[in-house]
Amino acid sequence: MTNYGEAGSCGRGQGVNIRLAELCIVLVVILAMSLTTYVRNVTWFDKYSMWDDILEKSESKGRPHFRMGLILYKDGDYEQALSRFLRAYELKPDARGLLNNIGLTYQRMGRFGEASTSYDRAVESGDSVSLAYMNQGTLYLRQGDLKRALSYFARSIESDPKNAVAHVNAGFTYSDLGMYGKAIEFHRRAAEINPYYANASYGLAIALEGSGQMESALREWRRYLEVGPKSGPWRQRALLRIKRLESIITSEQPENAVSGGALRR
């Protein structure tokens, strides 16, 4: 998936570097959640064979083309995925989520103008409006226009106040702009909407760290370990952050601090 870090430079605060790699999660989240479909517990080869067989028997129906498009998109074959999505649109233009998927595919191919048009059409037709606004926002992130991206995330949230992903995307973008207070606000709201949304904890930890709230950031990184993936690169980054913050906090403790009760004469 395309990295958010490619969209623009990252903010800094209190000597804490917000690495580009830590913001890559934004578009990963968006694209993963935008291409909504029921994933069956079979191999990709079996899925391809199954829907290819269905297409031969039902070429004039939109759903098989839609499903095949999802499989091809997942497999990274964007040209063929787009062809299937466009054919599905010809056959059933009112299929829910289809215009967003067409837009996302154009976006992955670098055809930003056509992607934007697809998202606009989704909004005009009332098809997953909050999602379309959010995807439009990611498009501007790709082009480095963070402020315009924020305006679309705001529209997405206005359309669906419980869209936790839009809140998180806004939060990451505010962090990228160095506006950590706003970032904290949006990530906390996302966590209120979904307390087990790991990306909200990840983004909140980054924003707290960027604002210099080291102990709060440490608590949030630990929270991320509880609700986030149990393996993989994001967990490893969180563990490194925890180790680093523990070292910083320990080094800031007064050298002559005395633990225990009050001193007695």
TrEMBL record:
Stored PROSITE patterns: TPR (PS50005), TPR_REGION (PS50293)
Alphabetical list of InterPro entries matching this protein: TPR-like_helical_dom_sf (IPR011990), TPR_2 (IPR013105), TPR_rpt (IPR019734), Ycf3/AcsC/BcsC/TPR_MFPF (IPR051685)
Q: Where are the transmembrane segments?
A: 20-39
* Family matches, as SMART domains: TPR
Print the keywords alphabetically: Membrane, Repeat, TPR repeat, Transmembrane, Transmembrane helix
State the name under which the record lists this protein.
Uncharacterized protein
